[in-house]
Amino acid sequence: MGEPIVLEDFKERVILVGVSEQDGDDAEDSLAELAELVKTAGASVAGTLIQKRELIHPGTYVGTGKVAEIAELLEHTGATGIVCDDELSPAQLKNLETMLNTKVMDRTLIILDIFAARATTSEGKIQVELAQLKYRLSRLTGLGRSMSRLGGGIGTRGPGEKKLEIDRRLINDRIAQLNRELKEVVKHREIARAKRERNAVPVVAIVGYTNAGKSTLLNHLTDAEVLEEDKLFATLDPTTRMLELEGHQQVLLTDTVGFIRKLPHHLIEAFKSTLEEAKYADYIIHVVDASNPQRDKQMYIVYETLDHLGVKNKKILTLFNKIDIRTDDDQLQDFRADHVLQISATENAGLDAVKDVLQEMLREDKIYIERVIPYAQAGVLQLVRNKGELVSEEYVPEGISIRAYVPMEVYGKL
Q1: Which of 41, 63, 257, 263 has minimal Cβ neighbours within 10 Å of its Cβ?
Q2: Model confidence over 352-405: pLDDT tens digits?
Q3: How many CA atoms does the CB half-sphere of 198 hold within 13 Å?
Q4: Nearest 5 degrees, angle CA 215-CA 267-CA 104?
Q5: Burial status of residue 254 (CB atoms within 10 A of its CB: 0-12, 13-18, 19 or more)
Q6: How does strand 399-406 pair with strand 389-396?
Q7: At 237, phi and psi to the nearest 5?
Q8: Alpha-carbon separation of residue 246 from 250, 391, 402 (angstroms)
Q9: What pTM value is reported for the model?
Q10: Mind listing the pLDDT tens digit for each residue in 326-361?
Q11: CA–CA dist 233, 214 (Å, integer)
């Protein structure tokens, strides 16, 4: 995959185009989010246009009358292209480009472009290139002129820099090679996961909408030094860090890639091994941006994505983050969560409560015991320390008097 393009050299300005298929849908909010994505990709928004219609036009996305309006808007603003708020079919892409004689992109291409710039690990780069190639393979005909029209800019990172001069056979060969490499990565991830299970260290997956504050939370809890930036998808590659609770209890916190509405299925498939960290975790921390007016919709999208990944029957701690910059007084609630807290990760507000609730969640899955361990069986104490929570120990004539929370496997050995 080629080096990321320095977007500042191109100063691209684009028109955002969306379709509102029913009254009361969130087309305006979705387009506002698309504007943030475009900004993150390095371009600016020259104008927006939303068409209300029953169905997306199968040939041109919007109706032909609106295509004429877009052409006028392009001429009036001097924009260098358009970005549609849904994934375009090859026919829609080709027809729009022919009719408008400009660069045509869609939401999926912009998200893939951002991911290409943000991937830093070899795994992340493999996953992104795989998603890009699969996306572009089905659009070779439609993308040909669009990719060669401009020498760079948004939507052209990675394989696009080759201007799609490689043919379908070569792309398929590259996809096969990347799949082989990804299988090795998945194998290593499964080995690491099995090792964690043997060590009986509970795993907590941090999930949430992009830019909700997951990385900030991980940093302030564990000194992880993960990039914090007020941009969508500021961090892409997952990070795992150890967090020590009271009683020498340890948990592994794993950050995951942020979710977003209309997350491209190519990315969900490519990042499945990463996203499935939530599936194999013992507990879930769901970080919500409490200051965002769209938080309820964002929470719905997070749970929809978790359901798609098969994440079920996990205890969930929902953290309403950024309460220090909230501007409304609406009640904050999450009916799917087992525990709910209000915090500000940036201000370190409420983080001690987060540790307390995590401790409580761990205890809920353990058995409380009070025992006197004979000195001859003192080795059992190490088992309690490793796999449970030792609340207290006292050396008495009969042995070691302990109070502890232990998992069922340890309880059967006491």
Answers
A1: 63
A2: 999 999 999 999 989 999 999 999 988 888 888 888 888 999 999 999 999 999
A3: 6
A4: 110
A5: buried
A6: antiparallel
A7: -80, 135
A8: 9, 9, 16
A9: 0.82
A10: 999 899 999 999 999 999 999 999 999 999 999 999
A11: 11
